[in-house]
Amino acid sequence: MPKQINMKDSQKIPVEKKKEDSLTEKVQIPIQSNTEKEGETPTAASKDLKEKAKKKKLTIILIALAGLIILGISLFYYFGIYKYKPYIKPSEIINLSNEYLISERVTQILPQIPTPKPLEPRTEVSPINGVLFTKSEMSKLKQRRPVAVMINNHVEARPQSGLNSADVVFEALAESGITRFLAIFWSEAPKKVGPIRSARQYYLEWLSPYDPLYIYDGCADTDNPKTDACGNVYAYKIKKIATIGAWRWNDGVRYAPHNEYSSLFSAWEYAEEKNWDSFPDVEGWKFKKDAKVEERGSKSKVKITFHERINNGGVYDSVWTYDSKKNIYLKETGGRVHIDQESNTQVYAKNLILQEVEYTPAYDDKGRIILTTIDEGKATYLFDGKITTGKWKKTARTDRTTYYDSSGNEMIFNRGRVWISAIATSVGKFDIIEQ
Predict the structure, then answer these.
(1) Domains of the chain
(2) What is the pTM of this model?
(3) Mean pLDDT, residues 401-420
(4) C-alpha 247: how far from its chain's center?
(5) CA nearest 414: which of 335, 351, 360, 340?
């Protein structure tokens, strides 16, 4: 049976529906779709999402590439270096215990390094040859006396020891056309000097101004005061060392009397015992600096013949040749380079003096000679590659010989070794080969 509808109900239904419809119309909430319909313009929010997606994708790609690079380097190191050229420990190559000293471990602080002192200036002039020294050096040098040594120049005595350490050297005839050296030592001391030989009177006159210790072996013993070296060693109260501390050197080449040597140190030790260890008052020459290279002479060479008649085949003739670079004169004797055995260098001098002296035979059984030293005469000087003439003068035995130029002014020499060749022009000569 059909349901009966209450009129009141039927009247209510349209009203509720009407209310529902009116609510729907009034409250309309827009709903956005996840996907834009084709042909529609994207909103700002959708653009942001796309950008974030792209960045995320790029980051993933870069991380992947970095991983591939690291993997490639690792594979290269392993297969290309390590596997085929494996690392070897240093201990497998070098035996450290045998080939190296292992330093000890430092357990304390290192000592403080001293501050270097400034170099002391060379202000003190040697009165003997003008060489400059510091005050400290000069203080030590003044505690010792010069030493004069008679040095043999016989052919069988060459090469000699110590000539290139001497401050001053005198070269003159002895007997039979043979020359001999008197070397004055003070600023340098070689290990040995010699071979030593006997004394002659004129050498005593040359050494007296230095008041030195005197090393020699034997002397001329005569009744003539002009040749009696033995007697005058005592008369002049010369501080003789003679052969104290001397020895014979038997090297298989030298034989007596050409193999006797002595020591300057032994002489100074003996002098200390005798209270002879103070420096005497020595009259100094005048000295200067070497000439500048451009101011030096180009060439000078001199040949000395000490005895023309008793020439001994020229084995005692000397030739001096100038070296402009070093500003020195180099010596040859008997046609050979003259060598100093101690330094293994050619004998040289900074200043060469050719002193003309008077020669007189003594007319004794030994053929001794007399050379006049206390007098005056001609002199020729070679230094700085130049040649100068003048005169020499010695007024007394204890006075040092003074040298003058042609105008009468005292000569001013270069600092360094002074070599004096005493030439008796009555029997010998010298020739300037180049100038």
Answers:
(1) 125-434 (3.50.90.10)
(2) 0.73
(3) 97
(4) 33
(5) 351
